[in-house]
Amino acid sequence: MVYRVIHLYTFAIKQGDLSKTLKYQLSEEIYTNSTGVNTIYDVYKFFSDKRDQRVEICFKNLRWIDANLCAILQAVLFRLSKENNLTFTADLKYLQNKFNILFRNGFINDAKEVAKKETSILLKTFNAGEANEFTNYIEYDLLSHPGMKSIDSATKEEVCDAMIELFNNYEDHAKTDYPVFTCGQFFPKQEKIIFSIVDLGVGFLPAIKEKTKTLIKPITNNLEAIKWSVEERNTTKPPPGGLGLHRLLNCTKKHSGELQIITGDTFWSSGLNEMFFPKKEIKNPFKGSTINLIFSSK
Amino acid sequence: MLIQVNKILNSDRGIDRASGQLLFNCIKDVHPSTLELSFEGMSKLSTLFLNESIGAYVLKYSKDLGNWFPKVSPDTILSHKIENVIENAQMGEEFDRINAEAQFA
User: Fold this and answer.
1) With CB atoms counted within 10 Å of each terminal CB, which end of chain A scores lower, N or C?
2) Closest approach of B27 to chain A, Cα-based (Å)
3) In whole angstroms, what is the distance from residue B47 CA to residue A15 CA?
4) Which of A274, A85, A255, A225 is nearest to A153 (CA)?
5) Is the CB of A165 inside 8 Å of chain B's CB atoms?
6) Interchain pair B88, A129: CB under 8 A
7) Which CATH architecture has domain A8-296?
8) What pLDDT score does A112 carry?
9) A251 — contact with chain B (CB < 8 Å)?
């Protein structure tokens, strides 16, 4: 089964039972950190026991959202749409004025391409078997973005290669027919670029637990699984989480950035790790995994 | 027999399982003593692709391999990946086990 992004715009013109419309308020600020990810996963938790209804996502109390997080929000809405038959809508006129970025990056309209001067990296979905399309996107939309111009070509090549490994691993280990969701955003004032990649698979732990079950210390929780996946290793087969994560970690570090990995109940980041915080809790775990790459564009 | 990977794949990328299987099917009946496999002109190779193609080939001809090695520009990401896949295919699951135990020791 091949899925494409279902945009909020598409949701809005679907027919639903208006008498059953629920409203969900997004509020305050949603940044690329554990609080922001928890806020988006809470949307899933709130609707996970509801079915066959129409939902208005209200953005009026929201002051800010890092636009790269549209990958996570879209993944959440996608799962709720597919598995709970929920239909989503939003006040598009309000969004056009206050959150125009959501149109420009393809979250609401099916943006075909983004102008070079634009800060967005389009929201896209990629199904298993679309490694070529994924690679084109990484090369042209992410790595050729003006926000990446301070990154040297060797690092770009390394990032591209590692992202391909990551995508191959999603195909091998995620155990889902659902696509991968990707989106990025350049923040010129903060001089950084953030790229998010989300899958709706089983997460890191099941495959790593299985792979390590005969070891003296088998992996039994999400934090250990993430740490295992970012270690440098050499195996006959790409391990769950990929051969790419260790290299992505190095590339982000080299450019004063950060790697964040969220799976199960755990939010891990290279920044937290350096401060000796092992992890932050995801209070409403969402099945799948999210990787946020942050590069300094200085 | 010279086989150029980019011509078999009609692409400068080998990054998915299907391409790996396509290449393996082209080389599986050619003995290493007569196979000259060239990766020149390739820009991207993934471990999944290499495992499905030359990893499977090395496993099939493990006793006849000798010094067989594909043609590829040395000291590049691609050449290192090819070296790793060939080495790992020769070492097999035992290598994985020893390596994993060492990391947890």
Assistant:
1) N
2) 20
3) 46
4) A255
5) yes
6) no
7) 2-Layer Sandwich (3.30)
8) 67
9) no
Backbone angles phi, psi at A199, to 5 degrees: -120, 160
Greatest C-alpha distance within chain B = 46
Question: Can you give the residue range of the structural domain that contains B81?
Answer: 2-104
Q: Which residue has the tokens 């043609």?
A: B71
Task: Please give the ipTM for the structure prediction.
Answer: 0.86
The full set of domain ranges for chain A reads 8-296
In Å, how far are A90, A170, A199, A285 from A202, measured between CA atoms? 30, 10, 9, 12
Residue A100 C-alpha from the chain's centroid: 20
- The string of pLDDT tens digits covering residues B15-49 is 999 999 999 999 999 999 999 999 999 999 999 99
What is the number of domains present in chain B? 1
CA A243, CA A264: separation in Å to the nearest integer? 20
pTM of the model: 0.89
Low-confidence ranges of chain A (pLDDT < 70): 1-20, 110-113, 116-117, 233-243
A228/A245 Cα distance (integer angstroms):
10
Shortest Cα distance from A67 to chain B (angstroms)? Answer: 29
